[in-house]
Amino acid sequence: MKVVHTIEELRDQLRGQLRVAFVPTMGNLHPAHLALMKLARQHGDPVVASIFVNRLQFGPNEDFDQYPRTLASDIEKLERERDVYVLFAPNEREMYPEPQNFQVQPPSDLGGILEGEFRPGFFGGVSTVVLKLFSCVQPSVAVFGKKDYQQLMVVRNMCRQFQLPVQILAHETVRDADGLALSSRNVFLQPSERAEAPQLYSTLQSVATGVLAGGSDVASLEGQAAQTLASRGWDVDYVSLRRQRDLLAPSPQEILSGEPLVVLAAAKLGATRLIDNLEVCKK
Ligand code: PAF
């Protein structure tokens, strides 16, 4: 695997390549990232991964400084798996040599809801860096995890609206045996919090079960779920049942008629904020 730090080196490595499959990450790689690389390998050649902790997508009171930076061990993991041909690991100066005055602004009905409501500017920061990374790597395929469901949707819509010739592939959420979705932020959980953390997924499962059993009162399904988490010590940002196609709230009619849904949640356990989601489809 070649490790490059500049856009010039990256372009040298990729000259003439027409089927590049790309996996953008912020590093601190875990098995879910490695699964994205494996999927990338099935859909393109060569596979390029990036590691860049993107300041633009962090709010002023968020964990940009604390975000785990583990480049040496990330490289070891990628070397061991042998799926990635080039790792692009730019520093901040390389990606943002000057203030980023041109930025992608996702529409508020997608970028301003759910995560966007609690993390203002987050999807603008994500879209901007993803567009820049796409411009550096020029992939034909890029892989994103479904754990960041809204991010996946924002990126897909951005590609469609800017007519970017990149096919976006989604990988299912990878979970530990107890259901906790893998995330770089799980390392921040204290042992007792780690033991409680799978409750987020169990709560999503109860909402799904409620819908599949014929429940259509969204407010009560969401409210019960949020209350369960709160009673166990979680600080809940949202538990929300949405339509898969646009992340808007479904009507009771749509729920009953089998509209594909997704329940999404974000909540803090101690100082660590976790997100998760579960698709709900009536057969
Ligand atoms: O999901 C992530 O790790 C980041 O949001 C991404 C897509 C690499 C952009 O910084």
Notable traits:
single chain, 283 residues, alpha/beta, 6-stranded parallel sheet, 3-stranded antiparallel sheet, 40% helix, 19% strand, globular, binds pantoate
Alpha-carbon distance between the two ends: 44 Å
Query: With helices defined by DSSP (H or I, 4 residues minimum), what is the helix count?
Result: 12
**Form type:** globular
Question: Helix share of residues?
Answer: 25-40%
Based on DSSP secondary structure assignment, what is the total number of beta strands?
9
Q: What fraction of residues sit in β-strands?
A: 15-25%
What integer is the average pLDDT?
Answer: 97
Give a list of the ligands: pantoate
Physical arrangement of strands within the biggest beta sheet? 1-4-3-2-5-6
Task: Produce the secondary structure layout.
Layout: E1 2-4, H1 7-14, E2 21-25, H2 31-43, E3 47-51, H3 71-81, E4 86-88, H4 92-95, H5 108-111, H6 115-118, H7 122-137, E5 141-145, H8 149-161, E6 167-171, H9 191-196, H10 199-212, H11 218-231, E7 235-243, H12 252-256, E8 261-269, E9 272-280
Parallel strand pairs: 1-4, 2-3, 2-5, 3-4, 5-6
Antiparallel strand pairs: 7-8, 8-9
Helix pairs in contact: 7-8, 10-11
The protein binds pantoate (PAF).
The site of pantoate (PAF) has 10 residues, from strand 2 and helix 7.
